[in-house]
Write a structure and sequence with these properties.
A ten-stranded mixed sheet has the order 14-15-16-23-17-22-21-18-28-27. Strands 1, 3, 4, 5, 6, 7, 8, 9 and 10 form a nine-stranded mixed sheet that branches. It has three domains: 144 residues, Cathepsin D, subunit A, domain 1; 130 residues, Acid Proteases (Cathepsin D, subunit A, domain 1); 71 residues, PDZ domain (Pdz3 Domain). It contains five helices and 33 strands. The two termini are 13 Å apart. The protein is mainly beta. β7 and β8 form a beta hairpin. The radius of gyration is 21 Å and the shape is globular.
């Protein structure tokens, strides 16, 4: 059964000004075959591909929510030249000035990309370093081809000719407007408000909207939350009050989805927890995403009611449901879960537990925490909310 993720590795939705539009139009791609099959690895609700640059293999995120990105290590190794510096905003509205450069060549299996514009970012900070990402294959590269994606089968295909992808069963169609860096934006309405959802394969969650789009008076099915839900390119979001809620219906493109689960956050996004139930085709020529359903099970909200981050290799409660008598609080230091000691971890072991959560697939857990110098033990049960 489908579950909502609570530590959302929100990696993308990097935005730029319209000044960078021409920069991200540049570049070309060559194919050896009419349809190219690309390596794809779907882990932690995120899609990764192996790319080759100057004969060296790197791990890139396949991310429609961001432009192409390379690490400082790649930039330095290739001795690339700076085109210019511009301010870049991540999904949590944090802004930093970054180098814009041009990547001479990148191989993705039998695809050869040349002279692609890229942003240089630090990809080793905080939780992002655990993913061991060297860069992003971004929307400006994707827009040069048609892509068919199926996370369930770890399948990714690319072509220049859309007719080589049979659209017969792809009956759900989402028109989109591309941003200057080609990121797709899908329009919808919620509580009588227009919403622009970034179609973001670099977002591990389901559907999120900014809090001003939510109206507590128009739904009786909502859970109040508090804490940090997301990690952006420049760090974690600040802890805030939020909601997870269910809507009776939500129209996306030509299809109405029933009993959809949505969360409030810093950005308006549609991500992999939603799209992994489909095979989908990305089409920048006609500005559409085509969907063929793989699963039709309604989303369920099953959780222990909290999540935690690793700060300096120490697990700390970062997000909780605002329930009466809920035992955990923001800032609690976690000593152990199910008698697995989480104290004195190094960077590698902290990353291991961050990606492979002890509580995953568990119905009950014993958790030991430290709060105000006191050691406290709690037994917690996974519950279903918003049935």
């Amino acid at each position: 059964m489908k579950k909502i993720l609570y530590t959302l590795l929100l990696f993308s939705t990097i935005s730029i000004s319209a000044q960078g539009k021409r920069f991200f139009e540049n570049g070309e791609v060559q194919l050896k075959n009419p349809v190219e099959k690309i390596n794809l690895r779907f882990e932690s609700n995120l899609p990764f591909v192996k790319v080759s640059i100057n004969g060296k293999i790197y791990n890139f995120l396949f991310d429609s929510g961001a432009p192409t990105v390379i690490s400082h290590a790649i930039y330095d190794e290739l001795e690339l030249k700076k085109k210019y510096k511009r301010s870049v905003k991540d999904s949590n509205e944090k802004t930093q000035e970054q180098i814009f450069t041009e990547l001479p060549e990148m191989l993705v299996d039998n695809l050869t990309f040349k002279k692609v514009g890229a942003i240089v970012l630090d990809l080793n900070s905080a939780e992002l370093g655990c993913l061991k990402v060297d860069g992003i294959l971004g929307a400006n590269q994707m827009a040069k081809l048609f892509w068919r994606v199926n996370y369930t089968e770890n399948s990714l295909e690319a072509t220049r000719d859309l007719t080589l992808f049979d659209l017969k069963d792809y009956k759900t169609i989402l028109p989109f407007d591309p941003k200057p860096q080609k990121t797709p934006v899908v329009k919808t309405r919620l509580f009588d408000k227009e919403i622009d959802l970034t179609f973001d394969t670099g977002f591990s969650g389901r559907i999120e909207v900014t809090e001003e789009k939510f109206n507590i008076k128009k739904t009786s099915r909502a859970v109040e939350t508090y804490g940090t839900r997301s990690i952006g390119a420049f760090g974690a979001a600040k802890p805030v009050k939020g909601y997870i809620f269910r809507v009776d219906s939500m129209k996306l493109g030509n299809t109405i989805f029933q009993n959809e689960l949505i969360s409030t956050s810093a950005s308006d996004l549609i991500g992999n927890e939603f799209t992994k139930d489909f095979s989908f085709i990305l089409d920048w020529k006609n500005n559409k995403v085509y969907f063929k359903p793989i699963k039709t099970i309604a989303p369920k909200l099953e959780t222990f009611g909290f999540s935690y981050r690793f700060i300096d290799a120490k697990p700390v409660v970062a997000f909780v449901f605002q329930e009466e008598n809920f035992p955990l609080k923001i800032g609690d230091s976690i000593i152990s879960i199910n008698n697995i000691n989480l104290e004195n971890l190094n960077k590698d072991s902290a990353c291991q537990y961050m990606i492979n959560r002890i509580e995953k697939n568990q119905s009950n857990i014993d958790i030991k925490i430290k709060r105000d110098g006191k050691i406290l033990d709690f037994k917690m049960e996974r519950k279903e909310y918003l049935k």
